[in-house]
Amino acid sequence: MNREEANMIGFEIVAYAGEARSKLLDAMNLAKQGMYDEANQLVEEANESIKEAHNTQTTMLAQEASGESVEVGFIMVHGQDHLMTTLLLRDLVHHIIELYKK
């Protein structure tokens, strides 16, 4: 996999993770207003975006695992950073929503 292909995968991960991040923050704001069903719906939608980001990431991992050379640049690192922080945000939002319910 050349650097251009890896960059496209990186951009795709950033897009999916960014979409999930936005939905998670919106979910937290809805929960703050007591709109728990709507908040849970957005969390589920965010989980789907995270799943898509993981699927994209897995494509690259599978190619590297099969012995193909993969050129990783800053864009891919940026994508990984976005995905990991979004996963952390998802965990925190889950706990915050539960706190709002109490």
Could you outline the blueprint of secondary structure elements for this entry?
Blueprint: H1 3-32, H2 36-65, H3 74-101
Description:
Its main location: cytoplasm. The structure is a single chain. The protein is an all-alpha fold and 102 residues long. It has a single domain (3-101), classed as Up-down Bundle (Methane Monooxygenase Hydroxylase, Chain G, domain 1). It has helices at residues 3-32, 36-65, 74-101. It is elongated, with a radius of gyration of 16 Å. The mean pLDDT is 93.
> Within the CATH hierarchy, at the fold level, what is the topology?
Methane Monooxygenase Hydroxylase, Chain G, domain 1
N-C termini distance: 50 Å
The number of domains: 1
Mean pLDDT over the full residue set = 93
Tell me the series of helices and strands, N- to C-terminal: HHH
Principal-axes shape call = elongated
Radius of gyration: 16 Å
CATH class annotation: Mainly Alpha
What percentage of the residues does DSSP assign to strands (E)?
Answer: under 5%
Annotation, overall tally of beta strands: 0
Short structural description:
The chain has 102 residues and is mostly helical.
